[in-house]
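Bug #77: duplicate submission created two jobs. Keeping one. Sequence:
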Amino acid sequence: MKISRVAERLGLPKERLSELQETIVKESDWPPPRLMRFDKPVSGVEAGTVVFYTGEVVYGYPKIKRAMLLEPAIKRQFTGIVAVEEKMNGYNLRATSIDGEIVALTRGGYICPFSTEVVRDRIDPEVFRDHPEIVLCGEMVGPENPYVPKSIYPVDSAEFVLFDIAKKNSRVTQGVHPTHDLAEEYGLNVTPLLGEFRAEGAYKEIVPIVRDLGKRGREGIVLKDVSNEAPPIKYTCSESNCMDLEHAFRYYNDYASDFIVSRVVREGFQAVEWGESSEEIRARAARLGESILLPLADTIRRKMEKEQIAQSVQIRVKRIQTAKDFEQHLRRMGIRAIFDIPVPDVDGYVVRIEKMVMSTNDKTQAMIDGQLW
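Kept job's structure:
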């Protein structure tokens, strides 16, 4: 595709886009269809934006900002009716149809072979025949999930859960009610709508919802203006912060400090806003400390016993070729992984994967060998 055509589609100067080729704007012809992918945000174009060689653009899903203190954030952000949806704990996907073929794009703009097979199996293709311009924005959740495996939802494998609708060649998303209406019409899984409240009294209504979600091990909530005139905000349960920290400290040298620090800071803001007593804060501190120290100590012990530290996940595929393609997909993302031989199962194959966490392995071994930090 000519760079001038891409620039015109995105409203960018041709010269500017030419400067970005190979560094930020990267071409890909595998898996098909051929595309250009924005690796980072630039000049108003979101990271993960994809320009297909058909000329169609699928913009990256806008990053949702986080509330640290919920009540003032609601007052600042919303004036009308606030919808509360559950924030699903998985990985972000956009599903669309290009030349009649459904593809699944990760947040970074890659076509993921595994995710594409799942959405082709889970989503009624009629939705794309009736609405060829549609982009379904959702979350892939479930225990057989190679990126964020979670056994907290009533699903056995991996499921696509819709949370918004966009259109090709447009940055505008449709919002709460059109999304739920479309899901009902086509039988799509959709993120739970937990209530709608007037902004001025929403905080007191929402805190019990967050507490309940936390007790059930769920991630948190997304607050949306039902008129779709204000951007959404997200808010996380304490229990989810601790589960993230437990995972991060198990592979401590493979996670950036921002990931870890931000979750600890969220706990401080939530404890204060919720007016917790000294006993409640101590209980929160104990939970937080355990999520940090216990997995870290376990990793060190296992490494001292000469064990290779790896993240074990599994996927369920209909075709062995999908597993082979997914292995190639991980390699191009720079992820080292060992794939076991696929095991036949009902309606497909189960594939166990060991994702290597080399930085944590190397750092821990170096400390064990006496190297200084």
